Amino acid sequence: xxxxxxxxxxxxxxxxxxxxxxxxxxxxxxxxxxxxxxxxxxxxxxxxxxxxxxxxxxxxxxxxxxxxxxxxxxxxxxxxxxxxxxxxxxxxxxxxxxxxxxxxxxxxxxxxxxxxxxxxxxxxxxxxxxxxxxxxxxxxxxxxxxxxxxxxxxxxxxxxxxxxxxxxxxxxxxxxxxxxxxxxxxxxxxxxxxxxxxxxxxxxxxxxxxxxxxxxxxxxxxxxxxxxxxxxxxxxxxxxxxxxxxxxxxxxxxxxxxxxxxxxxxxxxxxxxxxxxxxxxxxxxxxxxxxxxxxxxxxxxxxxxxxxxxx
Amino acid sequence: xxxxxxxxxxxxxxxxxxxxxxxxxxxxxxxxxxxxxxxxxxxxxxxxxxxxxxxxxxxxxxxxxxxxxxxxxxxxxxxxxxxxxxxxxxxxxxxxxxxxxxxxxxxxxxxxxxxxxxxxxxxxxxxxxxxxxxxxxxxxxxxxxxxxxxxxxxxxxxxxxxxxxxxxxxxxxxxxxxxxxxxxxxxxxxxxxxxxxxxxxxxxxxxxxxxxxxxxxxxxxxxxxxxxxxxxxxxxxxxxxxxxxxxxxxxxxxxxxxxxxxxxxxxxxxxxxxxxxxxxxxxxxxxxx
Lengths: 311, 289
Known about the structure:
The structure holds 2 protein chains of 2 kinds. Chain A is α+β, with helices and mostly antiparallel strands.
């Protein structure tokens, strides 16, 4: 049982950071282990936001020398950025293990990302012109405060509160997942995927990378694979209902779209609110009510339902 | 009743009552409901420990800032104080609200509820002005629940009696495992509605999703719109005059009568090709029912 939430404004921006925090805090009882946000701000062409993790939180307890290891890893990441002619415009360190770089880069970001991830213990959480992907252990308020998300203004976002079932409680298994190497594409998922290993082997044969053993990562890789083959987001969501087994409801966000898909049994919940300027969805209505306290009309999508909204 | 009198039950605390009714032991000596049907005493519609309430004594509870437990405790206290009408304000999707009310009561909810709304109830009449989440009225035994807007999945899971009404559309697996009572839906219903249904009747004025009535043992489903597909062992049956009369009465009662009447309804019953209760010996049957 995990909690997912998403919201998208049509043609305007709002304080999505604080709103997603309230929604996910209301879903804390569905998943207390870790919380993650993928929020989308104003896109800046040519500039990329890279969120990178150089260690797990538990690694910090691994000994006195680890501070130097962290510093070495950060140094190595920056050296590689330089090697790929990426100009670091800004650098933020919310924690000692998670960093945010604002870089200007003209070349191939995929090649650079692959190169950086070759470093030990380093994982790129997200890359894009507008995507900010934040995930850490703890509840929504905690994570949001640590990473200064409350002031974030943007058009849309998705989020997740995780109750770990089949993989560890750590940042690498936390949602949302970035659809490596597609800039600005992220995925959150509530459910269990039963043909995970079959699909994973197939995807690995096609050259996709997996950073964790969490079944939800498959959905991000699967979406990336479809996008690579020129499939639209809506078709990718529709196709997943046939090709992926298990019970799932998942949300995918791109630079200007937000999509949802529900499995063939409709076994995982989602409540939907649609108005002219805002679409909000969450595992439980209580999350939507956290940002819309007045009386509203909501619906439950049915089995095999796929929807895509434009920002 | 294992030597426990009504008077004793009345004076006990809830914990002692549970103990006395044998609900904590391996050996059950009767469910609490059995006391309803003692042939030696006159007919009674309330539990012996149920407080006397007066419908014209009304109280409003504003749930802003309260937890579910606090709200449910306040409602219990309000009933102890004799309030027969309770109005809940600003629930905002709160879960497990009004669960386990075993009293006569008029409960009005001015807003929407979350999961497990008014489950395990026996007696109250509930009006919910907003929508409800998953598993509304789960295991309800008697009373009426009317939801004005939409409802989530597993609406009326395992209900045993009473009328559970949703004027809007409901999610999937409506009336899963229902054992009695009536579920009425003004709009559409999702996949696997009436799954493993055992008794009772379900009316859906709109369309039904796939696998309707899958593995149903017994009971009847009436669908006003289109059926995507019927599940295993769910077969259409002829709509008799008796069915039409009952449908008309029920739908008129809740003001959900479609403009074109009830003649177009499709009736779905169990084909009884799979295992069903009638394969049992009479004494076994008595135990289960």
